[in-house]
Specification:
The chain has 355 residues and is α+β, with helices and mostly antiparallel strands. It has helices spanning 11-21, 38-41, 60-78, 95-104, 143-156, 257-270, 314-331, 345-353; strands spanning 2-7, 27-30, 45-46, 49-50, 55-56, 83-85, 88-91, 114-118, 132-135, 139-141, 160-161, 170-172, 177-179, 182-189, 209-218, 225-227, 231-232, 240-243, 275-285, 294-297, 304-308. It is globular, with a radius of gyration of 21 Å.
């Protein structure tokens, strides 16, 4: 019998698997490769100051120091380079925003994240007449490299099965689970938006959202992440990523002309340079109603868990919360109340009553 059967090898499943391996737990991962999974499509940005209001992201003081230690360790484990620390430059919209951030630069809550405040244009290829703020502690994870390296490592170690999970073959036993001929103490679902469709956790209030990004070849190089209306990552092998869109109605993974035009319009408002479109990709983010991850144990089955719902900030949240979840599973440590699925147990019990 193994300790954990993990279903899904996206960002969540890969990081959870690594956290268990480093604690000497035996695991097996079941995953059918999908090039359109949100982990493979996502641009992989980690940014401590985000949103339209441009505020410090939730738990930034905890999750960012952790991820800066965690990802280099994971690179060594997977023998792959995918973690790149980069400054993020956000142009000011007007004088008011410039003044606001000049004042905020003296706020100790932001000291660790603000690298520079500029009151005049800094880049001849960027629309920044009022200057901008340069943010530190950010960067980009090349997720396709991370996922691919994780897949190779798990295959080589004979702990990954490339097949579609079939819940008809799952049996819940008294203190373990059985899947086909595999017996494990626990099963943990890390299937992204697919967990919203059916299965043990379909009662959770997922709010999947489609996102699209463009792969561009800019006609001038740059080495920072730019973020205003859209993000643009520094070119790697001559290609940068630009996005993203948010569509709660379209559940397909097909790229659209509408998103293509929307992203390019934002790119042109940010940059004065042209760029050639090389590719376009779409994926479905496993977002949630309250914008907090879904982590925890099923209300009825102690051997069934979930690590999901990381949403648009998955690369920032996954390292810290995968560590916290393993502590919860192995040592009965506490889960943050804002991520613990106990906050939605009432939805499950209501659904049981109405069956």
């Amino acid at each position: 019998m193994i300790d954990y059967l993990i279903v899904g090898q996206g960002l969540a499943g890969t990081l959870l698997g690594y956290q268990l391996i480093r604690r000497n737990r035996s695991i097996l991962i079941i995953d059918e490769y999908d090039e359109n999974s949100s982990s493979n499509v996502a641009a992989g940005l980690f940014n401590p100051i985000t949103g339209k209001r441009f505020v410090k992201t939730w738990l930034a003081d905890v999750i960012f120091p952790y991820l800066h230690e965690f990802y280099p360790e994971l690179e060594e484990f997977l023998d792959e380079k995918f973690f790149f620390k980069k400054e993020i430059y956000r142009p000011f919209k007007n004088i008011e925003e410039q003044n606001d951030w000049t004042s905020k630069s003296g706020d100790t809550a932001y000291t660790n994240f603000i690298k520079n405040i500029y009151q005049t244009s800094q880049f001849e290829d960027v629309h920044d007449p009022y200057g901008g703020v340069e943010i530190g502690n950010g960067g980009v994870i090349h997720l396709s490299k991370l996922i691919s390296a994780g897949r190779k490592k798990f295959f080589d170690d004979k702990i990954l099965i490339n097949e579609k999970f079939d819940d008809q073959n799952l049996r819940i036993l008294d203190s373990s689970i059985r899947y086909k001929n595999i017996q494990a103490r626990r099963i943990v679902f890390c299937m992204g938006h697919q967990n919203a469709r059916k299965g043990f956790f379909s009662w959770l209030p997922f709010r999947p959202v489609k996102g699209e990004i463009l792969y561009l070849k800019p006609f001038h190089p740059f080495d920072k992440i730019f973020n205003k209306g859209c993000f643009v990552t520094p070119p790697v092998d001559g290609t940068c990523r630009c996005g993203s869109t948010y569509d709660w109605r379209d559940s397909s993974c097909s790229p659209t002309e509408k998103a293509r035009k929307e992203i390019m319009e934002k790119f042109e408002k940010l940059f004065k340079i042209d760029a050639e479109i090389l590719d376009q990709k779409a994926g479905i983010r496993p977002a949630t109603l309250d914008r907090r991850p879904f982590i925890g144990i099923h209300p009825e089955y102690e051997s069934v868990g979930i690590f999901n719902g990381l949403g648009t900030k998955g690369v920032s949240l996954a390292p810290y919360f995968s560590d916290q979840f393993v502590g919860y599973l192995e040592n009965s440590s506490n889960l943050d109340e804002e991520v613990d699925i106990k906050r939605y147990y009432s939805l499950y019990y209501n659904s049981v009553r109405h069956r």
